[in-house]
Amino acid sequence: MAEETRLEKPVYQLIALDMAEDIINGRYAPGERVRGRSTLASKYNVSPETVRRAMFLLKDMDILEMKQGSGIIIKDVEKAQLFVQKFKNACAADEIRANLTGMMAQREALEQKISAAMMNLIDSYERFESANPLTPFELPIRKGDALTGKNLADVNFWHNTGATIIAIRRAGVLVLSPGPYAEFLPGDVFLLVCDAESYARARTYVETGR
Question: Which of 20, 30, 75, 90 is deepest in the core (most CB within 10 A)?
Answer without folding.
Answer: 20
